[in-house]
Amino acid sequence: MNPPGLENAIDLSLDEGLLIHILLKKGAMSRTDLARELDCSRAKSGELVNALIERGLLAEVNNDSRTRSRLVNLDPDFGYIAGIDVGTTSLDVGVSDMTGEVIARYSTESAVEDGPDIVLGEAIAFINGVLEQEGVGVEKLRSIGIGLPGPVRFPSFSVIGDHFLPGWEGHEVHYLLQPAFPKAVIVVDNDANIMALGSQHKGLGKDYQNFIFVKVGTGIGAGVIINGKLLRGATSCAGHIGHTCVDFSGPYCRCGNQGCLEAMAGGPAIARKAMQAVADGESDLLAEYMEQNNGVLTAVDVGEAAAKGDETSLGIFRDAGRMIGYVLAGVANVVNPEIIVVGGGVSKSGYQMLTAVRRAILKRSYPFVTVNLPVRYSPIIDDVGVYGCIALASDWLFRVEGESLEALC
Amino acid sequence: MNPPGLENAIDLSLDEGLLIHILLKKGAMSRTDLARELDCSRAKSGELVNALIERGLLAEVNNDSRTRSRLVNLDPDFGYIAGIDVGTTSLDVGVSDMTGEVIARYSTESAVEDGPDIVLGEAIAFINGVLEQEGVGVEKLRSIGIGLPGPVRFPSFSVIGDHFLPGWEGHEVHYLLQPAFPKAVIVVDNDANIMALGSQHKGLGKDYQNFIFVKVGTGIGAGVIINGKLLRGATSCAGHIGHTCVDFSGPYCRCGNQGCLEAMAGGPAIARKAMQAVADGESDLLAEYMEQNNGVLTAVDVGEAAAKGDETSLGIFRDAGRMIGYVLAGVANVVNPEIIVVGGGVSKSGYQMLTAVRRAILKRSYPFVTVNLPVRYSPIIDDVGVYGCIALASDWLFRVEGESLEALC
Questions:
Q1: Which of B58, B135, B188, B331 fits a disulfide with B52 by CB distance 3.0 to 4.6 angstroms?
Q2: Cβ neighbours of residue B226 under 8 Å, at least 6 residues apart?
Q3: Which residues of A touch B234 (CB under 8 A)?
Q4: CA-nearest residue of chain A to B328?
Q5: What is the pLDDT of residue B64?
Q6: Spatial distance between the Cα atoms of B373 and A145, rounded to a whole number of angstroms
């Protein structure tokens, strides 16, 4: 029933799993500090560390400059982790060492509708190039995390439906990657979930146990972290806020419904409104961009025009932000998070949108939930997806009583 | 910093806490079955049980008819638990034995704005009567759980703001109850949270780890259970779905905002619309009820008229259900629950509302989240609050490393 790849996971005892989990989260540590974190004796932590060094999973990395005690961490020689963040119009790949430190990055424009062969083929070529440069074989790639811009059933990792990912149904992802990297664990999840994990590991989410990461790109989605753990929901569809209807007479959405948030405020909607504005003679700057681009505009063009102060473009982003904020008001009322982090391609287009998001949240929500709720752009916007893929891949490389480290959170 | 009462909690080791938690959830059990549940040896479970019998917390209750082994459970002689469910217009009190079995119930109309002295005075009088009848002193009341129709800060148990509970601010609840029951632990929570706990212990929520309980009464709120645990949120306000705006030009809400769901679809809104319909000459039946009631209508009257087929009343409930469903669509998209359970006073007014709720959820949500999502009325509608109060009180009577059993979920 499980897709191929999971059998490559490394079995650990509960104590070993907790120890590696701590190192992945907090970095290199002395045996004494590990004992404190694990709430066990120094002798016990030493014993665990030595056994894991014996297995090649841990290594002594360097000395603590203060106490001169030796620090241990995941062994860099054990292998590499890859993160593949597939966007609707972009592909981001990162290769990290065992500690999650990214050693090589690749970003390109890419069309998800080209299908898994082409998109993943490009990722495989990049990863192979990195391994070659490092002078190691493909068997050293230990785990791969993949983010897809659509719902993914967990933990079978199959794509749910095909309305966002034509040609990606079933276990395509595994069957393509497994032959290339026969020793790797392969894990797939929805992109907004992945970004929430990235934010939790290396972004604003680091300091919070309860937060929401909102991705605004071609699609709009959220990853919800509750008590430090990603919420996946009954059918692996938690966080699908982009498909909450905001206007019954709005445009049809890729999901089949009408007036969904993402059909009203996602990248293509922003581009559509800008093109309509050009047709209505409302913006000379947008008209100029459109002529340069063979009669087409993208959300990136509208963002550039907004950055130059184009009122029409600013208005389009404010409208999008307001609609996103209305939906987030309801989300905040349910979850009562500590912070909302906003990321994704469209969020790069300036602060006007974020201001509108904040105002709309305040206007439509319960004051005690939102009056002190920070709503901020993700500062690691370009890398948060790759970081999340690598974090997920690291958690699933190890297995404690049949479960990934994710379950230990 | 803690309000009085918590010092009465009984300290347990982690194993003892887990054992009592299992008995509270599953009822009487043999030492062998307890060993299986605890994943420990039969000798260890026997040892734990004997120590707890020694302390007067457990007792042998009867024999398993099948295996003839002796069953153990919480000792009925140890004392009693009280649940006080304060509604905006009602008061429900229950007294249970240590196993959560309710032995006495009291229900009355009551106005929360009369303040804690009067409302809780009535509850105290009832509980004292029960203890007297049982022939025991007040020191036998071991724990009290109270549900209030407004937000409660957890775990300080103080009322947040005063817009729903005038006169109930601060620690009033504790300072009133503590002198009456000096040996009791006293725990306070929001009513929708309490109902979710009641549903989890004795209602439809029993079979689910992830569900939403929606209370539709004077106010509208939700209790959200994720991975078997109540979600309280960053400022103890999770589940406040009644204050999501559904109409910017709608009536002002008690919270200060405009057009909140509860101002549009709660009990008073239903009554207001019915009285408007009478003024507009739309319903003879409602006009008749209104004349009988000295010119006033309540949601209960509208429910009675709806049950008799009055089209105007049915329309009012359908409209209310539709608005509730629109907000729940957004809630479902975020949480992706296994089931939504609807309860509260207004939900007793017939199935037309539920049908409208279901249709609206389907119309406005992501199909993969809601197409197979059951949305059902709570079958224990009158008791779910009292059950929840008792469940919360039982969890907080015991303390493991400074935390209630709730934290063990």
A1: B58
A2: A226, A231, B209, B210, B335
A3: 210, 336-338, 373
A4: A330
A5: 64
A6: 30
